[in-house]
Amino acid sequence: MTDTAPTGESTIMGHPRGLMTLFFTEMWERLSFYGMRALLVLFMVAATSTGGMGLDDKTATAIYGLYTAAVYLTSLPGGWIADRLIGQQRSIWYGGLIIALGHFTLAIPSRGTFFLGLVFIVLGTGLLKPNASALVGELYPEGGSRRDAGFSLYYMGINLGGFLGPLICGYLGQKINWHYGFVAAGVGMVFGLIQYRLTLRNLGGAGTHALPAYDDPARQHRFLKRSWSALWIGVAVIVVVVGLGYSGAVVYAPVPLALWSGIVILLLGLGFLLWLFFFGRLSAVEKKRLAALTILFLVQALFWAGYEQAGSNFNLFAERYTDLHVFGYAFPASWFQSENSLLILLLAPFFAWFWVWLGRRKLDPSTPMKFALGMVFIGIGFLVMMGAAWIVVAGHKALPMWLTLTYLLHTIGELCLSPVGLSATTKLSPKRYASRLMGTWFLFMALGELLAGLIAGRFSAHDVGEMPRIYLTIAAISIGVGVVLALFSRLIKRRLIGEDMQITSDGH
Prior knowledge:
The protein has three domains: about 15-210, Growth Hormone, Chain: A; about 220-250; about 255-508, Up-down Bundle (Growth Hormone, Chain: A). About 75% of the residues lie in helices and about 0% in strands. It has helices spanning about 15-45, 55-85, 90-105, 110-140, 145-175, 180-200, 215-245, 255-280, 285-305, 315-320, 340-360, 365-395, 400-430, 435-455, 465-485, 490-495; strands at about 10, 15, 325, 330. The strands form two sheets. The protein has a two-stranded antiparallel ribbon with strand order 1-2. The protein has a two-stranded antiparallel sheet with strand order 3-4. It is globular. GO terms for molecular function: peptide transmembrane transporter activity.
C-alpha cells in the first residue's frame, strides 16, 4: 500500500479535497447533535413556567436513553439503505435535511412537536452518521498511513463540532430561550448542508451509487423491488407508531418502554451470539474468538451505561448542585458537555503515541486489559462524584473541578476502550459474519445507552442523601468488572483471542 496520493489527484495538504467536504459536514452535524443533546434533559425537567416540559427525572432520563439508543440502532438500516439503495452521497444529504427538520421541529414552542422532532433527528442521524464515516474511507483507495491520517483529521472535525455545539446552543438555550438553542442546532445543520452541496464535486464518484447485491440483472431487479418495498413498509410502521402515540390510542410510558427495550436488545444480542456459536458452522478457533467478543460486547455495554451519565445525571448535577461561577461569571451548566470533545482533541494524539511507545517495548496492554482500564477509569470517575455528592449532602454546592476531573477520567477511559472496540470486532469476527457482528456491537452500545438513562433515573432531586451511595455502587460495579477482566485478561488473550492476534488502539 502506498502512503502518497495517486498521480493527478487534486489535494489539500496531501489529502483529497473531498475530505474537507466531509470534515465540515460532520463538524456541523456534530455541532447540532451535541448542542441539542446538551439541552435535552435540562429542557425536559425545567419547569413549565420557564419554558421547559416539567417532567420528572426518571421520565426525562428514560427518554434520553431511548433517544440515544435509537441513534445507534438506526445507523444499521442507514448503512444498508446507502449500500443497497441510494448510495452514501445521497444518504448524507437526505439525512442532513431530516436532522435539520428535527431541530426546527423541536424549536416550535409546543409540547406536541417535541417527540416528533426527536424522531426526525434519530432517523436523519441514522442516515448521515455511518455513511459520512464510510465515505472517508472510500476517498483513500490506496490505503496506507495517508488514510489513517485522513481519518485523524476527520475525527478532529467531529470533536471540534462536539466542542462548539454545547457552547453555542447551551448559551442560547439556557441564557435566552430553550427554543433558540434548538434553532441554533438546526441552523448549524443547514450550514453543514450548504457547504456539503457547494463542495459536493470534491467527492467525485465516491459513494455516488449503491452497490449491487447480485451480478445478475434480473436478480438485482427483484432484490431492489423487495428492498424498496421493505423500506416503505418500515416508514409506514414508524408513521403508525408515532400516530398512535399522538392520537392517544397508545400511551408510551418512557420508563417501562426503556426497560423492556433493553431486555429485548439484550435477548436479541445474546440470542444471535448463541445461534452463531451453535449453528453458525464455526471452527474451534472462531468459536473461541466469538466467546471473547461476547465478553467485550457485554463489558462495553456496562462502560457506556456509566459513560453516558454525562448527558443526563451529570448534566442535572451541574445545573442543580454545582457552583457555576468562574471569575464572577455564571456559565450555563450545559457547557460541561463540551469538555469531553476538548479533552479528546488534546489527549488523543498523546494516547496514539503512548500505545505505540509501549508497543515498541513489548508493553502494550492486550485488548481485554485496555477494556479493563476503561472500566476502572469510569469507576474512579464515579468515586470523584461520590466526593462531590458528599459536599452537596453537607449543604454546599460543589466546585466545577469535581465534574471537570470526572470528565477527564471518563475521557481517559474512553480512549482506553473505545478506539480498540470496533477494531476488535472486525479482527475477531468470522469473515462471513463480520457485518452482522459489527451490527451486534452497535446493538450492545444501544443497550448501554438505555441502561444509562435508567441508572440516571435512580437519582432523585428530592433525596440528595442517596447520591453518594448510588455513585459508590456504580463505582464498585465498574471497578469490580475492570479488576475481574484484568485478572482474566491473559487467559482471555491466550485461550480465546490467541497470542498472535493483538489489536492495538490505532486499529491495526
